[in-house]
Design goal:
The structure holds 2 protein chains of 2 kinds. Chain A is α/β, with parallel strands linked by helices. Chain A has an 8-stranded mixed beta sheet, with helices on both faces. In chain A, a hairpin with a 2-residue loop joins strand 13 and strand 14 (281-289). In chain A, helix 2 runs antiparallel to helix 14. Chain B is elongated and about 85 Å long. In chain B, 38% of the residues are buried. In chain B, strands 5-4-3-6-7-10 form a 6-stranded mixed beta sheet, sandwiched between helices. By secondary structure, chain B is of the alpha/beta class. Chain B has 2 domains: 11-24 and 83-217 and 275-290, 3-Layer(aba) Sandwich (Rossmann fold), CATH 3.40.50.410; 33-82, no CATH class. The chains are: A alpha/beta, B alpha/beta. Chain A binds chain B through residues 26, 29-44, 46-47, 50-51, 54, 649-650, 653, 655, 657-659, and chain B through 94-98, 105, 188, 190-192, 216-218, 220-223, 225, 227-236, 238-243, 245-256, 258-259, 275.
Chain lengths: 659, 300
């Protein structure tokens, strides 16, 4: 609680006035000379406890009433929802989730969760903290602490604007932790503004435990979790999974793989108008949605034959969550899905090349080149989506290491395979250990089937990873994300934790028959290689589909249609262009998942930390902090009423004379 | 010696009351002949009893007529009439000052005691005075007008002050008044009834005819105040802050309990008890007191 006129708090000792007046009256009372003191003393003895309690209560009520009046004139500020108590902290850190899901709106006012939360938080901080605390903003897109001059800036800053990114709340908290420990912020209030999407909070992550441990050791730290977890009713979301331009004898058309999902308890058939805008030409068609999901495979939209490249979007009718109603796409002559297999072992190269050249998508062209290790410098870095590196890991200061890093930074992929004599070099935090083998082939006991190279197919069918036989395994050492393990938790496939858009995997065996059944069975290897290839090909070609995220390399690109700050344009869905290249930016599809964290789960994440949760709604217009003088006025009235009741003389009894 | 102010004696009241004798409720042991019954047999005109003759009896007291009828010797005995010792015990503690100036409890007691002393002296009885206070005044009971003057002067001179020593004074009086006497106590009796009972019993044990004039003000019984006040003890000066609205009920309860105990004391000690409220006319109180004693004497 803070006060708009804090100077008047100096008058608070006046609350003791009733006590002083009481004491003065005590010594100024009428004096009566009395003889029958023995009766008086007996009566007082009989009445002592109750009388004293009554007198203390009367005094307490009077003090309370005066104190309440004093508080009223100091104009106290606090929140009905909030409970902002404990004075002004040295630092206030605002952790802002401005992911796409935070754009869910109140349809009546058009205010999003993000905007409502920021407005309320800004007002509350202005009223309660003002400029007395250091104010720091960390938002999910850049994860960089930003010092703010005043709370009102929260509303105006581009850094608090809408994005189509996804949020990583543990990373946000880590950012706050780093800031606190680096700057020794003293008493700190950390405000987390989020819609509690499970995909953003990643409650199962091991990072939470480490964060809790680190925060617990800090003194004077309080968390205020301002949450907007209310679900969207009847929300529809659209996404385009594939865009291909096809040209036949007399015409050209664009083939789109569309997916429309809806969050609804009932699956009532609904007719939906679906609007396509391609190179500023729009067409509308109606589709009937019978279930919670509608998939349109290869939906053809005729285009002009001369239109070889371009951009477009699919739009759904407006609803409470506008960020998932539009999906942008670009198209061009598809790039060749080029891969390079760097190996000196022709036996291993054969199956790899065969798999990578086989067309998973008949509309695309595939090319796989086998290069001996000595000719690594000949790799066409610009055109290659995937490099299968079956060679010794390069030294950290080698040129090739820098080239590989650049390759990854540009969003491409590398699959590392172990050589017969692994060296001790490390790449992306991982390195090879010793080979081991057994006469009895080992099988994969666990693999990650929700995401990654071994994820289930689009139809939900799992890959036959369990049927693989591994006779020789090279140990993978270091810190990474395991995607498949053999018995005794020995990793078979690991993803290196490297920054940037690219991916690097370490496979702890070889596809040849001497090491595993990958080549013999084929399916797993084919899926794995093509997924790695597709991952790397997302930045290949002149038309690319990307997910909105903070990427400095897009700062120089020009946005098609609307204009915005260059630093922000990689964060918003839309189409960017530079030279003859096109990029369609869209939200991460995991932002469409409506599941949110429950209050209990949230409390568990902050267990042991001083925190309180404020569950707000977009429709709720109550401010977080407001003047609460009415409460004190009410308190004063109650105190005066209590005092009056206690002071009321007892009912006069009709009594016979004592004698 | 200059005569003290005897304004507490009202001639009109005295002349009205002179017609009423002051009688003892029991036999008195006086040293001169008087109007009061004596425990020893004497030569008054009032027949007492017959008793068998025993050798050594005065043969002049033989009733010859009875001998003539019954052929047996009987002695005829008559009541002996003696005088009365009236011992006035006046409480002179500070609480006796209660009441408006000129009409305090002590003034009231003085009027009662003075009038009684006068009546007793007029009928030839001895009058003594004991003040029950820190500085006691003790005037043994004697007859005579000059002694009455001494008693009345002393009565006029006494000023009630200080803490009560009623209980000690009663025990002292019981010890010091050697012969049977009519002991009249004038007090507010603001002492624990149980302890008072013991002092009264002491007096009764010494075969005194004990009369108590319990002097109370109606205010003390009702405690009818409307505002909180500082009550100052008239005996000790100690102050008590009290809110009548809070404690009046308990006060009255305490008074009631006290009165019950006093009633019990009267029953068990058989004293002549008169509860007097200060607004009552003192001559009416005395008339009632004297008349009651006449009836008692007639009934013996």
């Amino acid at each position: 609680m803070t006060f708009l006129v804090p100077a008047l708090l100096l008058a608070l000792p006046l609350a003791a006035l009733p006590v002083v007046i009481h004491l003065i009256h005590l010594y100024r009372r009428r004096q009566v000379k009395w003889a029958a003191m023995m009766f008086l003393r007996m009566a007082q003895r009989m009445n002592k406890g109750l009388s004293r309690l009554r007198q203390i209560l009367i005094l307490a009520f009077r003090v309370l009433a005066v104190a309440a009046i004093l508080f009223v004139i100091t104009r106290p500020m606090a929140g009905g929802l909030l409970g902002l108590t404990g004075g002004v902290p040295d630092t206030v850190i605002v952790l802002l989730d401005r992911s796409a899901s935070m754009e869910q709106q109140n349809l009546a006012t058009g205010t999003s969760k993000r905007a409502a939360g920021i407005a309320k938080l800004s007002q509350a901080l202005r009223d309660t903290v003002g400029t007395r605390s250091k104010l720091v903003l960390i938002e999910n897109a850049h994860l960089q602490p930003q010092l703010l001059e005043k709370p009102e800036s929260l509303v105006d800053l581009p850094l608090t604007g809408p994005t189509d990114t996804t949020a990583d709340i543990p990373a946000l908290l880590q950012g706050a932790l780093d800031y606190i420990t680096t700057n020794q912020t003293g008493r700190t209030d950390v405000w987390v503004l989020s819609d509690l999407r499970q995909s953003d909070w990643d409650a199962a992550s091991g990072r939470w435990q480490a964060l809790r441990g680190a925060f617990t050791s800090l003194k004077g730290l309080r968390f205020h979790l301002l949450t907007y977890a209310q679900p969207v009713s009847q929300n529809l979301a659209v996404s385009v999974e594939r865009t291909v331009r096809r040209e036949t004898a007399g015409k050209a058309e664009l083939l789109l793989d569309l997916r429309i999902t809806r969050d609804a308890a009932t699956a009532t058939p609904t007719e939906l108008p679906l609007r396509f805008v391609i190179n500023d030409v729009s067409t509308t068609m109606k589709v009937e949605m019978k279930d919670s999901q509608l998939v349109l495979q290869g939906h053809a939209i005729p285009i002009d034959k001369t239109t070889k490249r371009g951009s477009g979007r699919v739009e759904l009718p407006a609803d409470a969550s506008p960020s998932d109603n539009v999906f942008h796409f670009v198209f061009d002559e598809p790039a060749v899905l080029r891969s390079v297999i760097l190996t000196d072992d022709e036996t291993e190269a054969g199956p790899l090349q065969a798999a990578l050249e086989a067309a998973a998508d008949p509309t695309r062209k595939y090319a796989a080149t086998v290069l001996p290790v000595s000719r690594a410098a000949e790799i066409a870095w610009d055109d290659t989506a995937l490099i299968v590196w079956h060679a010794a890991l390069p030294k950290a200061d080698d040129l090739i290491t820098q080239q590989l890093t650049n390759h990854l930074n540009s969003g491409r992929s590398i699959l590392f395979l172990p050589t017969e004599t692994p060296n001790n070099e490390t790449f992306g935090g991982l390195h090879w250990g010793a080979w081991s083998g057994d006469s009895k082939p080992a099988s994969v006991e666990w693999w990650r089937n929700d995401t990654g190279l071994l994820a289930n197919t689009r139809s939900g069918t799992s890959l036959p990873v369990g049927e693989l036989e591994v006779t020789r395994r090279c140990e993978i050492l270091g810190e990474g994300t395991p995607l498949a393990r053999l018995a005794e938790n020995k990793p078979l496939l690991m993803r290196a934790d490297i920054p940037g858009d690219g991916n690097a995997w370490f496979l702890g065996t070889l596809p040849g028959s001497g090491s595993s059944s990958l080549a013999r069975d084929g399916v797993v290897m084919f899926a794995m290689l093509h997924r790695a290839l597709n991952e790397g090909a997302s930045t290949l070609g002149k038309a690319q589909q990307r997910e909105a995220a903070a990427t400095e390399s897009l700062n120089e690109w020009k946005r098609v249609g609307e204009t915005m700050l260059s630093s922000e344009q990689s964060l918003r869905a839309g189409v960017l262009t530079k030279d003859d290249k096109l990029i369609a930016l869209n939200r991460l599809l995991r932002e469409d998942r409506p599941e949110t964290l429950g209050k209990t789960a949230l409390a568990e994440l902050f267990a042991g930390l001083d925190h309180h949760i404020i569950e707000d709604q977009v429709e709720n217009e109550t401010s977080l902090a407001s003047e609460i003088w009415r409460t004190f006025l009410f308190l004063m009235a109650l105190a005066l009423l209590g005092e009056a009741l206690l002071c009321m003389p007892p009912k006069r009894e009709v009594r016979p004379s004592a004698v | 010696m200059a005569t003290a102010d005897r304004s507490f004696l009202d001639p009109a009241v005295l002349s009205r009351l002179m017609a009423l004798p002051l009688n003892a409720r029991q036999a008195m042991l006086g040293n001169v002949s008087g109007h009061h019954r004596s425990p020893v047999r004497g030569s008054s005109l009032e027949f007492a009893q017959y008793r068998k003759y025993v050798p050594g009896d005065d043969t002049r007291r033989l009733d010859w007529r009875t001998w003539g009828r019954s052929d047996r010797f009987y002695i005829k005995e008559f009541e002996a009439d003696t005088n009365l010792r009236l011992c006035l015990l006046i409480d002179t503690s500070g609480s006796m000052n209660f009441g408006p100036a000129g009409a305090t409890r002590f003034d009231y007691a003085r009027k009662l005691a003075g009038t009684l002393a006068y009546i007793a002296a007029q009928q030839g009885d001895a009058v003594g005075l004991h003040s029950l206070a820190e500085k006691p005044v003790e005037i043994p009971a004697k007859r005579g007008a000059s002694h009455l003057g001494l008693v009345l002067d002393q009565m006029a001179a006494i000023q009630p002050v200080g803490d009560t020593t009623l209980l000690t004074a009663l025990h002292d009086a019981a010890e010091k008044i050697r012969q049977r006497a009519l002991v009249v106590i004038f007090s507010d009796l603001f002492v624990p009834p149980a302890e008072l009972k013991s002092a009264i019993q002491h007096l009764r044990f010494r075969k005194h005819d004990v009369t108590v004039f319990h002097l109370l003000d109606q205010k003390e019984l009702d405690f009818d105040f409307d505002r909180p006040a500082r009550f100052i003890d008239m005996e000790g000066g100690e102050a008590v802050l009290a809110d009548p609205s809070l404690i009046a009920r308990n006060y009255r309860e305490a008074v009631k309990q006290y009165m019950t105990e006093i009633d019990d004391l009267i029953r068990t000690t058989a004293i002549d008890y008169h509860r007097v409220k200060l607004h009552e006319k003192y001559d009416d109180v005395l008339v009632k007191f004297l008349l009651a004693r006449i009836q008692k004497k007639g009934g013996r």
